[in-house]
């Protein structure tokens, strides 16, 4: 991620609401401590540093995942980074069960270019991004194909974690009817057309009528 944010590493910021104290340690974890004298007062991890949230090619937040178990899943927290006069944890909420939302204010993100993803990438990945932009401009890939390339770039850079869904997607690629490039679509169509023609000839040799439209 953005190198200038690394100066937050090793520091922790707390926020007290009602009887709970929340602590956010950038690039480490988020914890919650119930400040009561109850014998079973809760104290636990709401998430461990996992990956970035990227929107419109900008770092918008940090995902802390794989926290303490909560019913059938693990607790997780999204930390929103907003411009502020000082480094402080400003707000905490729980928009859905066991999924927390923290707002962290810092002057480190006030510059309009401070959270851009592109400058943080290696030259090789920047070139890959440039090529994707050109392909999109030339209409050689679809918008969906462009987003997919960006996601792969972010994963390769370690900004996003590859999920199991991605692995499943890779496996099902062979049977997918969605194509990222016009060239790939045309090539696939040509191959399928040739295959249908071979099957039609084969059926004809065995005296079986073929009632299909090759164009379909």
Automatic annotation (TrEMBL):
Name where it's found: Golgi apparatus; Secreted
This protein's UniProt keywords: Disulfide bond, Glycoprotein, Golgi apparatus, Secreted, Signal, Transferase
For this UniProt entry, the molecular function terms from Gene Ontology, in alphabetical order, are: transferase activity
InterPro entries of this UniProt entry? DMAP1-bd, Gtb1-like, Man6P_isomerase_rcpt-bd_dom_sf, MRH_dom, OS9-like_dom
Q: Known Pfam families for this protein?
A: PRKCSH
By its UniProt entry, which Gene3D superfamilies does this protein fall under? Mannose-6-phosphate receptor binding domain
Ranges in coiled-coil conformation:
none
Primary location group: Golgi
Q: Which GO terms describe its cellular component?
A: extracellular region; Golgi apparatus
Locate the MRH domain: which residues? 10-112
- PROSITE patterns according to UniProt: DMAP1_BIND, MRH
DMAP1-binding domain mapped to chain residues: 117-216
Report quaternary structure and partners. Answer: Homodimer; disulfide-linked. Hexamer of two alpha (GNPTAB), two beta (GNPTAB) and two gamma (GNPTG) subunits; disulfide-linked. The alpha and/or the beta subunits of the enzyme constitute the catalytic subunits.
Q: What does this protein do?
A: Non-catalytic subunit of the N-acetylglucosamine-1-phosphotransferase complex, an enzyme that catalyzes the formation of mannose 6-phosphate (M6P) markers on high mannose type oligosaccharides in the Golgi apparatus. Binds and presents the high mannose glycans of the acceptor to the catalytic alpha and beta subunits (GNPTAB). Enhances the rate of N-acetylglucosamine-1-phosphate transfer to the oligosaccharides of acid hydrolase acceptors.
Q: What name does UniProt use for this protein?
A: N-acetylglucosamine-1-phosphotransferase subunit gamma
Ranked from the top, the taxonomy reads: Eukaryota, Metazoa, Chordata, Craniata, Vertebrata
The gene coding this protein: Gnptg
